[in-house]
Specification:
The chain has 8 helices and 8 strands. It has helices spanning about 15, 20-35, 55-60, 100-105, 105-115, 135-140, 160-165, 225-245, and strands spanning about 45, 65-70, 80, 90-100, 120-130, 170-180, 190, 205-215. Strand 1 (about 45), helix 3 (about 55-60) and strand 2 form a beta-alpha-beta unit.
Length: about 250
């Protein structure tokens, strides 16, 4: 649906400066105002210097918030190459991917990095454009003169993103579809919670927001016995078995 730009990451500043994009960001802030307060913990990091203000990220329920942007010329707190997050493993409580999957060349690598830096109960909020929306189809029309959003890779659909997250030990909890054009015209639809009549057309919304939580199964470490301890245990079991064996004919 989109025309992809070659490279490791792409810049969307030209499209975000258009009036329609600014209106889209206003509605997207409404969706974030419902999802971000559900985030808990100490550290929350937004990946991707999207067009939202810092006050939007401050509405998260975490104590500290930072932004990671693409490249060294971004206005975020820290810049990175779009592949390797400059964060320690298991050091983050919540991550917000503000259309970051569309702006990097390898979204699978970025998701694996998100799973690495999140702790065992970390939360993940993903904002992504719907590749099957009417807006996505209009982006490739040759007669358009306005700046277009040209992603670096194909944005995944909500169902495909579900599969990716479950492979990384994430459990999706909430899905919200929203957008400017058909079918919501600036509104949003909480999938599975209200407006049953809109479920049949929700698949063509302009964008969606997904809230997921990491579900890591606890692993019990196996302690290796000492070299002499294994032999003594085997001899003790043999003696105990020889005293209690009863034969019945």
């Amino acid at each position: 649906m989109f025309r992809f730009l070659p490279g490791q990451y792409t810049d969307s500043a030209d499209w975000l400066a258009t009036p329609r994009a600014r209106l889209f960001l206003q509605y997207e802030r409404r969706v974030l105002a419902q999802l971000l307060p559900n985030l808990t913990g100490y550290r929350c990091v937004q990946i991707g210097s999207w067009g939202h203000e810092r006050a939007t990220l401050a509405s998260a329920g975490t104590l500290c918030q930072w932004q990671l942007g693409f490249g060294s010329a971004c206005r975020a707190d820290v810049g990175f190459d779009g592949r390797h997050l400059p964060l320690a493993s298991g050091s983050v409580d919540a991550l917000v991917l503000a259309h970051a999957l569309e702006q990097v060349a390898e979204p699978h690598v970025l998701l694996r990095e998100c799973a690495r830096v999140l702790n065992a109960r970390g939360q993940l909020v993903i904002l992504a454009f719907n590749p099957w929306s009417l807006w996505a189809m209009r982006q490739r029309l040759p007669a358009r003169r306005a700046p277009r959003f040209q992603p670096c890779s194909a944005p995944p659909s909500a169902s495909r993103l579900y599969d990716w997250l479950r492979l990384l030990e994430f459990e999706p909890e909430r899905l919200v579809r929203y957008g400017l054009g058909f079918p919501f015209f600036g509104g949003y639809h909480r999938v599975g919670e209200d407006r049953r009549s809109a479920r049949c057309i929700a698949w063509c919304a302009q964008s969606y927001a997904l809230l997921a939580r990491r579900q890591v199964a606890p692993r019990t470490p196996i302690r290796k016995p000492l070299p002499g301890q294994r032999k003594r245990a085997a001899v003790g079991l043999a003696r105990q078995a020889s005293h209690h064996v009863r034969c019945r004919r």
